[in-house]
Amino acid sequence: MPTISALIITTALVALASAAPSRVKTQHTELRDEYDFVIAGGGTAGLTVADRLTEAFPDIEYGDVEVTPGFFDPPGSPPPATQMNYSVPVPTLNNRTADLLIGMTVGGSSAVNGQFFDRASRLDYDDWDYLAGEVSKDVNTRWNWDSLLPYFKKSVTFVEPDKAIAQALNLTWDYEAAYGGIIPRRECAAGNKDGLCWVPASQHPWASVRSHSGQGHYRDVIEDRPNYDLLVRHKVTRVLYPDGDPAQGPPMVEVRSLRDGNVFTVRPIAEAILSAGAIHTPQILQRSGIGPQAFLRVPASISSPIYLGLATTFRITRQSDLA
């Protein structure tokens, strides 16, 4: 079986105490001369991809790049594990700005959310397929609810609540008192996202600790993966194709250190994988000249409708002072 190497570049902020120190890199001088794969983003998907690749091809090297403080900073010293991003003024909101929270830790947003393991509605996923149009017809698996549901199920190990504990503690409640008038449902993971729902917790059933990709796809596997490196406190800025031609092989990945601003490039032998999240991945692509040419206003390496039609969730807060 061939061996591959991977490098993950990430911006993670939170420590995983048992992570292998030799595998966590904090500066470019610690990197190998070459990697088979370079993955931008050590979040929910990036770590999963790196885990699967290093497992399937134990002799191939991987690199993962994400912006993050080190794993081994003293407790309490790292910055918060979320990054606040602000929108431009929104005309329909009276020109107010909205903030978007993004996970900045090994594990990404799966490590900082409310431990709600939830799915969107059937219509949301079917809209992906509709918006993709002709593009979706070129792939073997379409991005709609029916195609994705088997993979949703595959990713979950459901553990029922302990009935004895619930009975011993007399855990009861009055739905009508708290949620009168709202349609109760047993759960909303079957594509119906209306009413009051049970939401499973993304949590280890016995240890009662958060279950996220940083645990399951990095900390729990790294000891047996000498081909799996993680570069922290760095950020991928763009990808650069040789002579500006995507046909000339995988691109170089441009990386900037968050410590000293040093910029360098890493070129994978096989492939560069962008997995920097719904906000930062389109930014990297557009800075790389990949996107709608009318939007970029520069010659595009690849003309593609990157980020068009994307709707995200943000929050608007209001503070009131009471005398």
Global Rg: 22 Å
Q: Which band does the percent of strand residues land in?
A: 15-25%
Please tally the β strands and state the result.
13
Global mean pLDDT: 75
Secondary-structure arrangement, i.e. CATH architecture of the largest domain: 3-Layer(bba) Sandwich
- Order of SSEs: EEEHEEEHHHHHEEEEEHEHE
| Total separate domains | 2
What is the terminal separation in angstroms?
Answer: 71 Å
Broad CATH class of the largest domain: Alpha Beta
Signal peptide: 1-19
Cofactor: FAD
Keywords: FAD, Flavoprotein, Oxidoreductase, Signal
Domain Glucose-methanol-choline oxidoreductase N-terminal: 277-291
List keywords for this structure.
323 residues, alpha/beta, FAD/NAD(P)-binding domain, 8 helices, 21% helix, globular, oxidoreductase activity, acting on CH-OH group of donors, flavin adenine dinucleotide binding
What does the model show?
The protein is an alpha/beta fold and 323 residues long. The protein has two domains: 227 residues, 3-Layer(bba) Sandwich (FAD/NAD(P)-binding domain); 84 residues, no CATH class. It contains eight helices and 13 strands. Strands 1, 2, 3, 4 and 7 form a five-stranded parallel beta sheet that branches. Strand 3, helix 1 and strand 4 form a beta-alpha-beta unit. Helix 1 packs parallel to helix 6. About 7% of the residues have low confidence.
